[in-house]
Amino acid sequence: MKIVAIDRQGKEHTLEGRDGWTVMEILRDGGLDIAAECGGACACATCHVYVNDGWFEKLPAPSESEIDMLDMALAVEPNSRLSCQIVCSETTDGIKVTVAPE
Amino acid sequence: MTAAAPIETDVAIIGAGPIGLFAVFELGLLDLKCHLVDILDRPGGQCTELYPEKPIYDIPGLPIVTGQELTNRLLEQVKPFNPQFHFNEMATGLEKLADGRWKLSTDAGTTLIVPVVVIAGGAGSFVPKRPPIPGIEVFENAGDGVGVHYAVRKMENFRGKNILIAGGGDSALDWTINLAPLAKSLTLVHHRDGFRAAQHSVNQMRELEAAGKIKFHVASVKALHGEAGKLASVTLAGADKSEWHHETDAFLPFFGLTIKLGPIAEFGIHLNENLIPVDTAKFESQTLGIFAIGDINTYPGKLKLILSGFHEAALMSQAAFHIVRPNEKLRFQYTTSSSSLQKKLGVS
Ligand SMILES: Cc1cc2nc3c(=O)[nH]c(=O)nc-3n(C[C@H](O)[C@H](O)[C@H](O)COP(=O)(O)OP(=O)(O)OC[C@H]3O[C@@H](n4cnc5c(N)ncnc54)[C@H](O)[C@@H]3O)c2cc1C
Ligand code: FES
After folding, report:
1. ipTM of model
2. B28 lies in the same domain as B94
3. What pLDDT was estimated at residue B306?
4. How far apart are the C-alpha atoms of B180 and B214, rounded to whole Å?
């Protein structure tokens, strides 16, 4: 189960996802610079990513509280998500995300 | 800011998170009086700012307690010691005085003169998020009512100004509503036509928009323009990527808070990767008289847990006592059986 992540310097990393873990946790453990200050509580918006290459549409829709919390994210785009709210599973295998600017 | 008279006390605590609060209790049992400084407007640190309603399951003796409840209980526990809080203030300066005491100053002009400083600053101070717009810092601190501001200290400063507000939370809407009557013009931009704010604020904003008193665009700010630090206009981009120019005197982005180490880095205390190394007997930094407890410190085996911070506060207090009262002896006592401790707690 793979996650392809592009960091703020534009460098691409291929990380091993884990079933049931969040994309935020995989990015953080993979050493990417992502603050995730609230530890996945959907309360800080510092785990903001852009979901690329058609993956945005394939994900389950964001919850009401994620949409609300995105109001506190910077530089929001139509493909913005909070990575702590994306759970790794077979259906996310190969997902491509870009860490949003700080 | 006009400086108030310096306050002399026993201990100055930077940070009113759970660990700073519990330190008041442990120091209080030893008759040491505390003043606390926090940039937030209320106590609780991460517990109240990041997860007030989430349950915590690993506080000894409290099988389940939310961040807010834990903070409330700590406040109740420290009440007998009458701690003095300085909220909305950033601890910005730390200086050693000739008599060996420390002078801690804040950005609001408070000065604390103390023999002991306890840094319970967590991961640092909560500060407003700065939008990633190139060159935005040039327009910060440009003066009253003009340029980029992350907070409104005095509404009057914005009278007669063209104001642009960005964001979709309560602060963005509250300031839209409050500043609209005195602004020359007010425009609100947000990336979607929906808001994470109290419904009555959203209603009020919509009424102002319908009455033509403010403008609202689904848009975001892409660039800032102006000569020599004087903001003149911005580039806005709509949902369809179309861009246009918008003239404004002031730009107020409200995207909530983020944690930055902040001024603690400039205190001249030894740091290791933004943490303060301490010994595990006293939790003192490498600078004598400056202690560090809670998430901000590091030592072999450190766990960033609330219960670890509580333990650190207890040991730190013993060491702090010997600095504040060098000629007095400390006797180990239980709160259960010591009548003198119970008197201090107001329960005997
Ligand atoms: C989502 C989440 C869940 C958590 N769950 C648990 C859990 O289940 N169990 C557990 O034990 N821990 C948990 N934690 C960790 C716990 O919250 C922290 O260990 C704890 O808050 C640390 O307390 P503190 O007082 O050291 O620092 P903080 O709570 O970070 O407080 C520090 C305070 O200092 C202030 N400050 C810093 N610098 C300055 C300055 N220069 N001037 C003025 N003010 C300043 C800050 O504004 C802040 O209010 C969790 C954390 C998060 C984010
Ligand atoms: S980690 Fe805070 S919202 Fe995702």
Report:
1. 0.86
2. yes
3. 98
4. 7
- Is the pLDDT score of B281 beyond 90? yes
A84 CA: distance to closest CA in chain B (Å): 14
Instruction: Please tell me which residue of chain A has the smallest CA distance to B126.
Output: A37
CB contact under 8 A, B131 and A73: no
Task: List the domains of chain A with CATH numbers.
Answer: 2-99 (3.10.20.30)
Q: B68 and B52 in contact (C-beta within 8 Å)? A: yes
The pLDDT tens digits for A20-67 are 999 999 999 999 999 999 989 899 999 999 999 899 999 999 999 999
Q: Domain check: are B105 and B154 in the same one?
A: no
pLDDT band at B183 (very low <50, low <70, confident <90, very high): very high
Instruction: Search chain A and give the residue with CA nearest B168.
Output: A71
- The amino acid that residue A68 corresponds to is D
Element (H, E) at B141: none
Does the reported pTM lie above 0.95? Answer: no
What value, to the nearest 5°, has the Cα angle with vertex B182 and ends B180 and B185? 60
Say if residue B48's pLDDT is above 60. Answer: yes
User: Is residue B32, in this structure, part of any structural domain at all?
Assistant: yes
Inter-chain CB proximity A43 and B191 less than 8 Å:
no
Residue B159 is part of a domain; what is its CATH number? 3.50.50.60
Query: CA geometry: angle at B331 spanning B32 and B117, to 5°?
Result: 30
**Given an 8 Å threshold on Cβ–Cβ distance, is A74 in contact with B259?**
no
> Distance from A28 to chain B by nearest Cα, in Å?
17
Give A44 Cα–ligand 2 centroid separation in angstroms: 5
DSSP 3-state of B340: helix
A72 contact B CB<8A:
yes
